[in-house]
Structures are given as C-alpha cells and as structure tokens.
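Pilot study result, target chain (113 residues):
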Amino acid sequence: QVQLVESGGGLVQPGGSLRLSCAASGVMVSVNLMGWYRQAPGKQREFVAHITGGGSGAYRDSVKGRFTISKDNAKNTVYLQMNNLKPEDTAVYYCKAEVFDSWGPGTQVTVSS
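Predicted structure:
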C-alpha cells in the first residue's frame, strides 16, 4: 500500500522560500518516478516537477530556475525547494507516485504580503 505524506507548506511573502517534503512508504523513491503537482482554487491540478529513479528532474516552465526537486533515497523522501515564490504559486501541493497513480493529501502553500 502506497502512502505519501506532504509537509512544509505555509504562508510566505513574495520572494520567500519554502521546502516541501513528501515522505513515502510502500514505494521506493530510489527507483520510481515521483512527481509534485499543485491545484489552485478554481483551477485544474497541474504538473510542477518530477524526478526519475536516476535523479533527473523536469519542471513546468513557470517554475524553472526557481524550484528544485530532489530526493533522499535513504529517507525515502522527495523534496521540492521553492525559491522566489510568487502569488501565482499559491496552491495545494501534492506528491504523486507516478507509476502507482497514488497521491498524498496535499499541503497548502500561500504566497501573500
């Protein structure tokens, strides 16, 4: 049974930073494609970034250069470092184990002055 638990969200001012964590069980992040998605109020859920088993990352254009996805295989945890946050980054952020199509409950990120 795959379980994903996100943490690290919160309220931050524009230009600030947050690091999200996704603690995984039932799936090995060392060999599986893991993704971060987000959903803003009234909008569809959208892809943010993913990281392959080999550690290669890919990003949506609007976060390139600001967000970095990484993982700690020993902790079986995936991270999303978010820098220079903008109000349009406000959303609930979800972790996903792509192959299993399994989602975490999400963590709220609010960027506001």
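One observation from the pilot: The chain has a mean pLDDT of 96. A full batch analysis is planned for the follow-on phase.
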